[in-house]
Amino acid sequence: MSEYQEKSLDLAPEQLTKKDIWIMWLRFYFANEIPHTFDRYIAPSLMWCLMPVLKKLYKDKSELAAAYERHLLFFNTQISWGGGIISGLMASLEQERAGQVYRGEEITITDDLIYNTKAGLMGALAGIGDSIDSGTIQYIFIAIAIPWAQAGQAVGALFPFIAFSLYQLLIGYFFASQGFSMGRRASELLTSNTMQNLINVLSILGLFMMGVLAANYVKVTSSLAFTISGKEFVIQDTLDTVFPGLLPILTVFGVYGYFVKKGMNVTKALIGLTVILGILGAVGIL
Questions:
Q1: Residues ≥6 apart with Cβ < 8 Å to 147
Q2: Interatomic CA distance for residues 111 and 63, integer angstroms
Q3: Concatenated DSSP letters for 23-53?
Q4: d(CA 7, CA 23)
């Protein structure tokens, strides 16, 4: 074997395995927000998670350095839906590019294509991930744990954190493996009928669970009562007969309306709600 052939074989990219994708995803999962910078956001996290992958693909130091630089450009997305799919997709694109470099072919997986793919997906995937994970799934786990917390059980405090962490770890790996397997067609995963139906089901379930929380754990009752012709009328008893849970749901909608008009300022909402309920309680309405 000639010296050139030996050198060529030394530069050959290694085949990526499921273990490589698992390690890649674990690195992103645990380093997601740690190297957060103003100009790059979480790009260092993505680059760090891809380092073992890139080292297997690029044996030439100059190509490896160029790959590192490609993934240090501005990047920001949600951890599991965005980070999972995009990290898997980047591994797939880099594997294809490394093969083109090694075989001396025309580079169709250009730097611009790689970055534009990330830039086009990171915002859309972050929106889906935030609404499903942060807006739905975590509240389902909290709703499950509230009775345990009210009973004084430590599991009530620990369960939402542990369950949500494991959920994001597993679904993120699923998306990373799918992104790697599907390559540039990974975005089809989110536009498929099955995924859209899943998103709709989770959204409806999230709304249902928020209704359950409002009905069971928002306690607002009226102490207002008056006597007519010698018979006492208690307003709360009438409300419980005609429209059970009316005052709690009005309170929830009131807070929601405040957030819509004034923005998500939780502190002001809590102070305002406390003052309003305190005044109504002082005058005997609540």
A1: 156
A2: 12
A3: HHHHHHHHHTTTT-BTTTBTHHHHHHHHHHH
A4: 28
Give the residue extent of every domain in the chain: 11-213, 219-282
Report how far apart, in Å, the C-alpha atoms of 104 and of each of 1, 8, 81, 100, 124 are.
Answer: 20, 11, 35, 6, 35
Query: Whole-angstrom Cα distance, residue 187 to residue 173?
Result: 16
Please give the sequence-ordered ranges of beta strands (E in DSSP) within the chain, or none if there are none: 225-228, 231-234
Place of tokens 């001396």: 104
Walk along the chain (286 residues) and give the pLDDT tens digit of each residue: 444 444 566 778 888 899 999 999 999 999 888 888 888 889 999 999 999 999 999 998 999 999 999 999 889 899 998 899 899 999 988 998 898 888 888 888 888 888 888 888 888 788 788 878 887 888 888 888 888 888 888 888 899 999 999 999 999 999 999 888 877 555 455 545 655 565 566 556 556 656 666 666 667 776 667 676 666 666 666 666 667 777 777 777 777 777 777 776 667 777 777 887 777 777 666 6
The whole-angstrom separation of Cα 84 and Cα 249 is: 37
Question: Are 210 and 144 within 8 A, CB to CB?
Answer: no
Angle at 212 between CA 211 and CA 218, to 5 degrees: 85
Can you read off the two tokens belonging to residue 171? 């679904």
- Residue 215, both tokens: 């009905």
pTM for the structure as a whole: 0.66
d(CA 242, CA 248): 14
End-to-end Cα, the chain, rounded Å: 91
Q: Provide CB contacts within 8 A for 222, sequence distance 6+.
A: 235, 236, 239, 247, 285, 286
